[in-house]
Amino acid sequence: MDTVSSLAPLEDACTVVVLRDGQAGLETLMLERPGNSSSFGGAWVFPGGKVDPADRVDRAGEGLDDLAAAKTAGLRELAEETGQQLSVEELVWLAQWTPMQAIPRRFRTWFMLAPATSAPIVLNPAEHVRHEWLRPEDALARHSSGQLKLIPPTWVTLHHLARVESTAQALAQARQAEPFAYETYLLQPDPNASPMGVLWAGDEAYPAAHGRHSTAGQPGARHRLTLSDLPWVFERSGF
């Protein structure tokens, strides 16, 4: 089992989940990665990217803390990838995702919610090949049928948004809640096989010493996303 000290150093990134109210309910902007991309090839993702050194200083040259730098990077990436121009005040911190497995590069990623503007979406063809405004439940249904590829952080975010009726409600709930820290551990009994699922603090199988805030859950407790078959299944005890 990997220990925190043996993992690759963390790099920072920011994802912006852009929301709007469609005729049938809440919709979110999703972008399809090129199939030959080395990063999430063929997956449908939210806009975002890594924090660059320039994102860590303000216009006066003063250093920014990690959260402020992540927001700066998120706004920059959103504009570069979609043409959407937003202000830092419009970003609402939803969650933070940290992979706890041994992979070559590990990104600690801030997830932000934001309302869409009326500007058209203009894609950077080097980054994405298509975009769609999708209701979260429709995106999940298409993933369940094998029509659309997702990664776990995107899937879980859509799962939670599927219970929300409007942009205003989603933003209000996120402002009132404590951003959740997903320190992700792979459920992978055979290191040569694909992961069976991903676990977070509170699950009975989550290592007691894994992550910064984690303790293993009581016997039978669940906080996991099972990936072995479609549809994926999310379980969280007590919710």
Structure explained in plain terms:
This protein has 239 residues and is α+β, with helices and mostly antiparallel strands. Helices cover 19% and strands 28% of the residues. Strands 1, 2, 3, 4, 5, 6, 7, 8, 9, 10 and 11 form an 11-stranded mixed β-sheet that branches. The model has no long low-confidence stretch (mean pLDDT 91).
Round the mean pLDDT to the nearest integer and report it.
91
Strand content: 25-35%
Instruction: Work out the radius of gyration.
Output: 18 Å
Q: What's the story with the biggest beta sheet?
A: 11 strands, mixed
How many alpha or pi helices?
Answer: 4
Structural class, from helix and strand content? alpha+beta
Distance between the termini: 29 Å
Overall helicity: 10-25%
H/E element order: EEEEHEEEHHHEEEE
**Uncertain stretches:** none
Total beta strands: 11
Which of globular, elongated, flat, extended, rod-shaped describes the shape?
Answer: globular
Q: Could you give the topology of this structure?
A:
Blueprint: E1 10-22, E2 25-32, E3 44-45, E4 48-50, H1 66-82, E5 92-99, E6 106-115, E7 130-134, H2 136-144, H3 152-161, H4 167-176, E8 180-187, E9 197-199, E10 223-226, E11 233-236
Parallel strand pairs: 1-6, 5-8
Antiparallel strand pairs: 1-2, 1-4, 2-3, 2-7, 5-6, 8-9, 9-10, 10-11
